[in-house]
Design goal:
564 residues, mainly alpha, two-stranded parallel ribbon, 25 helices, 71% helix
């Protein structure tokens, strides 16, 4: 920690940002009802008996370890809060999200501090808002947050002492307390989630070898690594993993194909961070004295192209918005086109496939709006700050000789962290499925890597100049605040509808009904997924709910389907 200094306006602004973020995330957690696996984990695993004591928690974990999976730290926290009540989980989870933002700041800015730069902090929040896949599922939904958000906080907190010792800024004494503390913390951090824990162990192993070669190896490094390996073995070798894996039996090719779907979903969310990385690269090129500016004619020609392209993009955005307001007719047209010209022709038609195809493509408009506006903003920034291609002539990384990787040592840190994001995804080759949410750890590595560009002096100086940081502030506010307000509203609607539904459920259960009937929730998941609720007409949602309330069936009336 730095010495006590006078609190500046930027420090107050940073505190206000984090406090507002905590309040906002607390509100979303409060409004989010119990859902899907929350009901299943409220029972002693594999039974219909509800968890009512801490001894039930440990019994449930034991059964879970034997027959389902080894993520004991995740589900210990989940089961405990399900026992205590969700009202205690809500502030805890809001704190976890703020903690993740702070950890990303510390790792990327290579400084453990409570005096944050508000502009850097705001960018981290924006990149997490868009870049953490399946946002509501992994950050707000109780089970998902324990599996992904909680584990990321534990893992990246455990990596802090290794990272800062590598930087020559040790934060742990090489005594008995450090040795024992890191050993037990290693077990906890690693006994969490497979792919990110595996990547964490790889990072620690490399840093331990590096410290040994530099004759800087400390006892706590080894004890932490030993604890981390033990935790990972306890996670990976759980009997339940083999039971579940044997039941799924997926071919090797599917493991490979899974990488494309999961990787695309992660890259889609990380688009703002990727654009920002390109921006940083161009700022480095600006600082290279060997760059030759283009003539004004070329700049003028580029300006005309920008105006034309901007007009086309805005027309397309308007068309997508119209489609969203008129029943997603573009999604419907695309799904019918594919159905008639692909599905029917190859002979794989069944009665549900047409509807499934529409459901899969129902977010086309939202994705295109997101991409088109993102492209428009990036083009505008590059042009406004004179960083577009038209402003440079024959720029070659190799020819210039002082590109991003050589201008400052922290450039290598950026590349290493981006590589770790890719490695963390490749670990998922061992898994039979790769849902987008499994890229959570990869996204965090990526965002840390992108934000590390602020450790390159010329990038930091350029972006934090008065003109540029004010522009960044406007972009962040326009990108996040309207959407955050809409998400809060949607959660409020979800809370109201679910509260009415649960009052009806309690009444029907009290009357001894074995089959429940209810109206559907009006919300649906969109492609960016900042609201997560899968209604009870879904088999997985229904299964845990029925077991928890000891009923045989749930019927959801008037399930909304697209007009065909």
């Amino acid at each position: 920690m730095e010495k006590c200094k006078k609190i500046t306006n930027e420090n107050w602004a940073s505190g206000g940002i984090l406090a507002s973020l905590f309040i906002y995330m607390f509100a979303l957690n409060f409004l989010m009802p119990l859902h899907r696996d929350d009901y299943e984990y409220s029972l002693i695993w594999g039974t219909l008996q509800k968890i009512t004591t801490m001894s039930d928690v440990f019994q449930s974990l034991y059964f879970h370890y034997l027959i389902h999976g080894g993520r004991m730290v995740d589900f210990f926290v989940l089961d405990t809060f399900l026992l205590w009540g969700k009202q205690w989980f809500n502030p805890f989870n809001a704190f976890l999200f703020v903690a993740l933002i702070v950890l990303i700041y510390w790792h990327s800015q290579q400084q453990i501090t409570l005096r944050f730069n508000p502009y850097i902090l705001a960018l981290i929040i924006m990149f997490c808002w868009f870049g953490l896949p399946d946002f509501a599922l992994v950050n707000i939904w109780m089970t998902g947050a324990c599996v992904y958000l909680l584990t990321a906080v534990l893992i990246f907190a455990f990596l802090l002492p290794y990272h800062f010792d590598f930087l020559g800024k040790p934060i742990i004494d090489n005594g008995l307390m450090g040795l024992l503390g890191m050993f037990f913390c290693g077990i906890i951090a690693s006994w969490t989630i497979e792919n990110t824990a595996a990547t964490m162990n790889l990072v620690i192993a490399v840093l331990v070898v590096y410290a040994y070669k530099k004759e800087r190896l400390k006892k706590w490094m080894l004890s932490g690594f030993v604890g981390s390996v033990i935790g990972f073995l306890l996670l990976a070798m759980a009997p339940g993993n083999y039971v579940r894996y044997a039941a799924q039996k997926t071919p090797l090719m599917q493991h490979i194909v899974n990488q494309f779907g999961g990787g695309f979903e992660m890259l889609l969310g990380l688009l703002p961070a990727i654009v920002f990385l390109v921006l940083a690269c161009r700022i480095v090129l600006v600082g290279n004295r060997k760059i030759v500016r283009t003539e004004s004619k070329e700049v003028e020609k580029e300006s005309k192209k920008f105006i034309i392209a901007s007009t086309v993009r805005m027309i397309l955005v308007g068309l997508m918005l119209l489609s969203k307001m008129k029943g997603s007719f573009i999604s419907l047209w695309i799904s019918e086109l594919l159905y008639e010209n692909v599905v029917v022709r190859i002979g794989i038609v069944d009665e549900h496939l047409n509807e499934q195809l529409f459901t899969t493509l129902s977010g086309v408009e939202e994705v295109l709006i997101y991409l088109l506006i993102g492209i428009q903003l990036s083009k505008y920034i590059f042009r406004k700050w004179k960083l577009g291609k038209a402003y440079f002539k024959n720029v070659s990384w190799k020819a210039q000789g002082s590109g991003l990787l050589t201008v400052h040592p922290n450039s290598y840190h950026v590349m290493i962290l981006l590589t770790l994001a890719v490695v963390n995804n490749f670990v998922m080759l061992a898994a039979p499925a790769f849902p987008g949410r499994a890229g959570f750890g990869s996204a965090v590595f990526f965002i840390i890597g992108v934000m590390t560009v602020f450790r390159i002096p010329q990038v930091k100086k350029f972006l934090l100049s008065t003109e540029h940081k004010n522009t960044l502030t406007v972009i962040v506010m326009l990108s996040v605040i309207p959407m955050a307000a809409a998400v809060l509203y949607q959660h409020a609607v979800l809370y109201t509808e679910n509260s009415q539904r649960m009052a009806l459920v309690e009444k029907q259960v009290a009357q001894g009904s074995s089959s429940l009937v209810m109206e559907p929730v009006s919300l649906k998941n969109e492609i960016l997924r900042h609201v997560y609720f899968v209604d009870l007409n879904n088999a997985i949602s229904k299964y845990g709910f029925c077991r928890y309330y000891h009923v045989n069936d749930v019927k959801v009336l008037s399930v909304r389907t697209p007009n065909r």
